[in-house]
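Field guide to reading this record: the first block holds the primary sequence, the second block holds the structure written as C-alpha cells, and the final block holds curator observations. Each block starts with its own label. This record concerns Fumarylacetoacetase-like C-terminal domain-containing protein, catalogued under organism Puniceibacterium antarcticum.

BLOCK 1 — SEQUENCE
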Amino acid sequence: MSFVQFDPQAAGHILLASWNGAPRPEGLTPTVPDTTAAYAVQEAVLQGLGDPGGVWKLALLGGTTRETAVLPRRALHISGTSLTLPSDTAIEVETALVLAGDPADSTPIDAIAEVRLAFELIAPRFAPGAAVSPLDKMADGFSSAAIVLGDVLADWRAGLPDQLGIVLSLEGVPVLAPETAAPLDEALDFLDWLSRHARAQGRPLRRGDVVITGARIGPLPLNGAQHVQACVMGATVTLG
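BLOCK 2 — STRUCTURE
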C-alpha cells in the first residue's frame, strides 16, 4: 500500500489560487491529517499572499476543540466598505478586540486597546456544497473571508452585558435573529490561550492585531444583500 505524503505548501497553493480568484476546488487531496498540518497550511497561504497576518479568529474544531486561524491582513476592512462576495457568503455579527500588545507582557484585559462592533464574512475557498473535512476547513481559516471593523464600544472596561441587544438589518429591513451570549471573561480566557499559542507558532501577538472571538449573531446568509448594518450601544458597523 502506498501513501501520499501531505504537503502543506501544495495545499496552501490550492487555497492561495482560490484567494486570488481561481475556481474554488472541491477540497484538498490528500486531506489535512492533523492540526499541526492545518496551521502549516494557514502559514503557507500567508506566505504566498506576502501578507503579515495579525488577524485572529477563534473557532471550535468539529464544534468541540478550541483552535484558531491566523487570517490575512488584507481580509480586514473598515466600516462602510463594499465587497465583491460569492453568492454563498454568510455574515456574522461579532465583537472584535484590537490589541495594545501581547497579554504575555501584561494581562489579557490590559492587552486590549479597544472593543469594536464587527462583521465577519464567511465564504470558504472551497466550492459551494463541497464535503470538506473539519481539518480542511481549519486549514482554510475556518472559512473566514473578511472582517469589517465598526465603531468602538464605549466604556467596555466598565463591563459589557453577555448579550448586547444588537439590532441587525439587511437592505434596511430588520432581521429577527437570536443573539448568543458572549461573556467578556470568555474572550479574556481565549486571549490568554491565544497569546501562548501565537508565541508557539512564532507569531507573538502585537499592538494593532485584531482578534474575533465568536459570532454573537449568525451566520446568516447574505442572499445578495448589498447593504448590511448592525447597531448597539451607540456603535455601528456597516457593509456596503
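BLOCK 3 — OBSERVATIONS
The chain has a mean pLDDT of 95.
Residues 8-239 form a domain with the Fumarylacetoacetate hydrolase; domain 2 fold (CATH 3.90.850.10).
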